[in-house]
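Recap quiz, item 2
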Amino acid sequence: MISLNLLRSYTGWDLTDKEIIDGFIRLGIEVEEVTHRDNIEGTRIGIIREITPITEKLNLTKTEVGEGDVREIVTNSKTVKVGDKVIAALPGGRVGDLQVGERKLQGTMSYGVFLGAKETGVPLEILPAEERDGVWILPKDAPEFTDPAESLWLKDIILDASLTPNHPEWQGLEGLIRELAIVLWWKTGEIPEVPKFEAPKLTFTGKTSDKMAIEIDDKDGCIKYTGIYAQIDSVKPSGFDARKKLLASFMRPINNVVDASNLMMYFTNQPTHAFDADKIKSHKIKVSSTKSETEFVTLDKVTHKLPKDTLMICDDEIPIGIAGIMGGLDSEVSNDTKNILLESACFSNTKIAQTVSLTGIRTDASSRFDKGADPETTERTAYLVLEMIGGTPSEPLTIGNDVERNKLTLRSSRMQKILGYLPKIDDVKKGFSLLGLNCTGDNDLGIDIPGFRRVDLSAEIDLIEEAVRVTGYDNVPATLPLIKLNMMHEKPEFDFERRLRRITAGIGFNECVTLTFTNEDELKKFQLESKLDLAPKISNPMTADATMLRPTGEIGLINTAAGNIRQGNHDLKLFEIGSQFGPETRTLMILLHGKNGTFWDKESNTYDFFDMKGIIHTLLSQLSISNFIAIESNDNPHLHPERQAKITADKETIGYFGELHPDISDTFDFPDKVQIANIDIPRLMNVLPEKIKFVQTPKFPPVYRDISMLCPESISSSEIEKRIMESCDEKLSSVRLFDLFVSDENKEKGIKSLAYSLVFVDKSGTIKGEEIDSQIEKVILNLKEIGAIVRTG
Amino acid sequence: MDTTKLKNDAISEIEKSTSSTEIEELRVKYLGRKSELSLAFRELGKLSPEEKKALAQDLNETKNFITKMIDEKNEIFKKQEKEAQIKAEKIDVSLPGRKENIGTFHPVSIIMEQIVEIFHRIGFEVRTGPHIEDDFHNFEALNIPKHHPARAMQDTFYMEDGKLLRTHTSPTQIRMMESSTPPIKMIALGTCYRKDATDASHMPVFHQVEGLMIDKDITFSDLGGILSILLTEVFGGETKVRFQPSYFPFVEPGAETLASCPFCGGEGCRTCQGSGWVEMGGSGMVHPNVLRNVGYDPDVYQGFAFGWGLERLAMLKFGIRDIRDLFTGDLRFLSQFGGIR
């Protein structure tokens, strides 16, 4: 959250709101939302001079809203006292969308109204609980008779910016001011003076080392530790100026000590923490890491289980704070605190990041330390905090040293090589100087990286990015690379999936994309308990319905079909090319439901098993796979046990298809039967013919013979076809079933009637009738063995 | 027999006839096997040669005359009847035709196919990769060590076996570089996962396109050129492209790419929140650490990478406002995308 009032209060630069926002965006500070805080107009900070009760609930006040300008204002507040400073909205003013006027309350005229915090447009969560309701009573030092829209920044523009982790310095106002300086330079071409929060001169009484020892046990975890012992006058609410800045920074006021620490963190980006020095019994601060899992209560009264190797601030051996993250409850500053130990330290960013990611505790402090804090600013920030708190500080005690600055070189030749163009070196130097990166040299720039950029700027490439940034990403030219041609070694999978997509859409299917998640209950609903072990489990699921990855791809399509039915879409031809898991593979899934060829002049058919079988046949034919065979199966518990088959080609199983199990179909209330196919794409690729084999077209016309027969119900069509084929020689070129009929009479007898069309072709001449007759004789005999009676004539 | 009377009878009856059926009846009556003429021909044998000759000639003339008359009349009726029949075959052409079901590509597939074609045209190859990845390929190799704050930018689904669901298609870059030597010009496409709560612009499952180009002289400016090609091909020639600084640990310099808003052409509208620009996704020069992690010398090889969301591209291209619409599979949604490619 960035307040433009706060920014401008330190810069005074001539930049419009839009120029600031656009400039920030162009520098990589992504402004996600701009909020106009602008709820009140025509209000004054007034002082209540007199209170007269008029009814049980109402008081009449005399409130001074300008030098000698006393108004009679009626309030229902029973908490306001004479001398309180409040915000008075006066007739002619505006609160939200309401115009303020004079009004009569229970017979008494009121020439204005006192405002609560809520009416001023301040988010209540950043106020202390006692200020959220009723009339908002301002600090005693609030500037009376001023317009709080101006004096308390109740009229402001707040930017909600998303800051990338490589720029921790943007979390501090100083960092943002440096960026704003670039914006101003871009606008005016002039290099502005960049303001900085300089360390104040403090008068020290005694030495911190006389009161407190500091020891760093984990030197990797804690780079530097500055402690300052200070006597303080009192712990009390912050004054008006601090309150105003806290409001602008979206920070909740606590007390003058904590507020000073918070505000300075927001300014210099360096977190500090004040311990009640008298609660540190051993008079020794020790920074060490936990040797085993440790329980700890933070100042927000939450008990945490901290993992081994968490960096702690200890009262000798007793932990009193999680380093860089949050202090402990027992050593917290309270209203009775007389002496504090102000900690201003630099902890290792990787160490803090590790604790944050292991414990999930994120605080304003941790979000600064885990990206890399500036060791060079520990004393300065501590001084700024102490200046705000007041009291009597002792001479600081610092253990550890500043980190040696990275000395980097930015070569023009390297910039040219990486970028393909060379930003103006003079502009790079100017921009860098505004960012606090002082350069030496003309062509190749030598730069000592200051502490506040030490993590992000650690190699030449980092400076190249920074050079592009300060000279404007807008100025990167668009060129096309010069490359040598080489033959691509494309992996065929993706191309093949594209081909499948074309074929399947080409035969009338609508492509869906569904989520790959599932859960235990869903698998049970699909009678797929047996796949539970196979489905890869997510250890940190987001919702209870997405705890594992689907072991059976078509779950997604079936749910999609059910959704369509609910929406009144009845006739469905859906497909998906997606992944299924356990093991992970790519799958083509097809679903059919409803009616085929609905039309005004004829009866439509409801899709059944053979529609799906035909579709698979068509699809495989498109891939030149001619040897597709469906083999009876009951492998798939989610399919009808009597109506499912394996899809095989070249004796390889490449998938399955069938009708959705009636029980499952019922739970979804599907009006018609659902047909499903699931084809494993890598296996399908394995059976693709390498090339199309050409066979010379016969020069002589084929001869057709139809045979019909009665045979037992139990004999499969494939058995009959097999026997027909083995009874004839190579001149039989195809066998096709063209009729299947079961009369009521035959049904009782368990008999069905079948008719096949046989095609004979001879490459060398016309086939003689007798030759075919003798082959048909053999067919008849062969079929007789399985009880099929061929009807002749 | 009296052939004159026969002729006159025939003339009279033929002229009165009204249809080809009646004509055929007359043909039987006058010329059929049991007709007077046929009988007379059969009787000829009983006559003397002179009588026979004279009568035969008369009979033949009569037969020819009647035949001709019947044929002519028949021709007229046939023609009339055909015309009548054609007239009777009139249909209501406004009745609906018998349609074949039209299949459609999912909008995400349409964009994906289009991108593949664009990059095929400039010589890039396509790669894919597994959804379940290991930490090395998804994070470590991409310059995102354990506990790095950037991991918080990509909230990750972890599997019970310690693997994870890839948060981006960038692991494909690593796999590509591990298995080949430059020059590399690749795009990768596929499903990615992030623990994002579902809303109008986020889904925990989404798709990305990843681009990678590595050689000795591939520059940041070249990235601008390639992305301009991509965006003008996808959204049309008027599209303007610009970069904005952004941060992804596996690229440096890193950039967010913006395109002039395809809805308002840069004027400012609801989709671009008034800015005239829409964010397309991240890109940048492959970070030297990433090159080192796959065994490339960053002083020799360099190049760019980008990774963009396909849903976002599809939404911008088709004007879809809510990402969730892409995943409902409602036929009324799906069927709108037919015939596009």
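Strands of chain B lie at 125-127, 132-133, 164-165, 184-193, 205-215, 241-245, 251-260, 277-286, 302-309.
Chain B touches chain A through 89 residues (CB under 8 Å).
End of item.
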